[in-house]
Design a protein that fits this description.
CATH topology: Rossmann fold
CATH architecture: 3-Layer(aba) Sandwich
CATH superfamily: Class I glutamine amidotransferase (GATase) domain
Largest sheet: 6 strands, mixed
Shape: globular
CATH class: Alpha Beta
Strand content: 15-25%
Radius of gyration: 15 Å
Number of domains: 1
Amino acid sequence: MSAKILMITGDYTEDYETMVPFQTLLACGHRVDAVCPGKKAGDTVATSIHDFEGQQTYSEKRGHNFALNASFDTINVASYDALVVPGGRAPEYLRLDEKVLAMVRHFFDAGKPVAAICHGAQLLAAAKVLEGRTCSAYPACRPEVEMAGGTYADIPIDGAVTDGNLVTAPAWPAHPAWLKQFMAVLSASGTVTAKAA
């Protein structure tokens, strides 16, 4: 079974949190459309690499150019089975875009699977979809999760948590757990199509 998945990203998205789920989900037979406000298919977003090197917070380095494969202004959000929200610096400004917030709310209103990692929780909090939900995120985002009415899941950096249709994790070391749980939610969702179009 294949799903048609929307990934909303932007400049200085976290490199691993964008490239790894994008490529993994494609390798598993799903269709993934990566979009960014103000950009079209074939444009790129700059990525950043966040690492944990012993300081009090992560370090940041310039990553790759990630090619978008769909145009933000022409997608029909209702045609997607699921949503992926990478972390990095992009969510802090994407959350200012009302069209992005409306897209995020669509997936929650429809009960479709949503995977968010690291700073992706900033976008969920701004969309006001975390009330009564359990959500993991990078620890610095804990106040935003809690101010949005969510319960912050304080789990190991390589862990993930599922709350209904929502799968979240603190950062890229959680990819194995996060993607495994997300694919389980996709399989159980009933929104997955027989063949991604």
